[in-house]
TrEMBL record:
Organism: Mycetocola manganoxydans
Top-rank taxon: Bacteria
Protein name: Uncharacterized protein
Length: 105
């Protein structure tokens, strides 16, 4: 019988997502990547900028906003990783998601 232990290997993932807010201010593609810090904690990076963490505490994924894991603030608890990432995206300024908006201000 073969078993695999996620703790023995580092797993990182990157996605290209299309983000659209109903306000119409943002309608763009973003790069979201996860960097595994611990067996159950992922750092969430959007367009190269860290926005928070997702801590998997079975059965939920806890979204934590902030640059420092020790001081990060809980945003939500969801049943899926993608829901937690979406909640984190809702906590950051739109300039992080679409840097062109910062240039217009």
């Amino acid at each position: 019988m073969k078993t695999s232990d996620r703790r023995t290997k580092k797993i990182d993932a990157t996605w290209n997502l299309h983000v659209h807010f109903e306000s119409g201010k943002v309608d763009t593609d973003v790069e979201v990547s996860l960097d595994q810090l611990k067996n159950d904690v992922e750092r969430v990076v959007v367009n190269g900028r860290q926005i928070g963490y997702v801590h998997h505490v079975d059965p939920v994924y806890v979204a934590l906003s902030g640059p420092d894991l020790a001081r990060a603030v809980e945003v939500s608890q969801k049943l899926t990783l993608d829901q937690s990432i979406r909640d984190l995206l809702n906590t950051v300024p739109v300039e992080v998601i679409d840097p062109s908006l910062a240039q217009r201000a």
